[in-house]
Specification:
single chain, about 300 residues, alpha/beta, five-stranded parallel β-sheet, three-stranded antiparallel β-sheet, about 10% strand
Length: about 300
Amino acid sequence: RTSLGKEVEIRKWNINDLPSDEFSIENAIIMQKSSRWPLMIDPQRQANNWIKKMERDSKMKTIKLTEDYSKILESCIRVGTPVLLENIHEEIEPYFEPLLKKQFTSSGGGHVIKLGDAPIEYDKDFRFYITTKLSNPHYPPELCVKLNLLNFMVTKEGLQDQMLGRVVGKERPDIEEKRVKIIQESAKAAETLQITEDKILSLLSDAGDDILGDVVLINALAESKDMASAIERQIETQEHNKQILQQTRSEYEPVAFRVAILYFCISDLAHVEPMYQYSLDWYNSIYDLAIDQAEVSQNIKER
C-alpha cells in the first residue's frame, strides 16, 4: 500500500464500498496494477458490489455462464464497456480462452481478438472482471497462470468496521452521515491537492531559462501555492472533525466486535454440516432486526 497505493484512489474505493481493511485494499491495488484479468474469490459478494459501484458510470455489463453471454461480451469488447462475469465455478468455457490469454493481433492501427469464429475489434478501454462465490475453489494451474487470483473473503477487521457502520447508522444516523460526508470531502480535497501539485511541477518543468523573469509563471505558481495551502488546512480540519466523530462511534465498537465474531462462528458451522451455510446479506438483515428490537435505553452499554 505504501509503495504502490495512492491514498486519493483508496479513499474513492472505500466510498464505493470496498472494505477498509488492509487485506482488501492490497487486493484492490494488485488488481489495478496487474496486467492479467482478476478472478476474485468472493463468497460474501463484497468485491462484486464494489466493482459494480466503481464501474457504474461506465455502464458495466454483468454476464453469467448460465446465460447467452457471447453477444453482450463481443459488443462490450468493441466499444470498451467493462464486463463482470459473475459466479463461475471451477471451470471456464473454452470460448474465453483468447480473452484470458489476451491473444490480440494488430490490424489497421488497432487490435483484433478472435472469440469463437468471429474476429472482434478490441477497444483499449475494455476491462474484464470475474468473481466466484466458492469459498475454497480448486482451479487448475493452467487457469491460474492466465488470471490474477485474488481472495476477497471477509476479514475480521473489515467485517467489524462494516458492522460498526451499520449500528451507528441505525442508532446515530446524524453521526454516520457526517462521517461519510467528511470522507467524501477529504477524498475530493486530496484529489484537488494532487492536481494542484502536479500543476506546479508541470509549470516548473515547462519553464524557460529565466524563471524569475517570467511574470505569468511566478503569478501562476503563487496562486497554486496559495490554493495548495488552503486545501491542506481544509484536510487538517476534516481529519480533526473525523477524530471527534470517531470518539462517538467508538462507544459502539464492543457491539461490532461481538457481532463480527458471531458471524465467523456461524460461518464455521458449514464445516460441521454443509447444509448450514448463511450469506452475509442474511446475517445483516438479522443484525438490523436485532438493533430495531433491542430495548430502548439512553445508556449505550445497557442498550
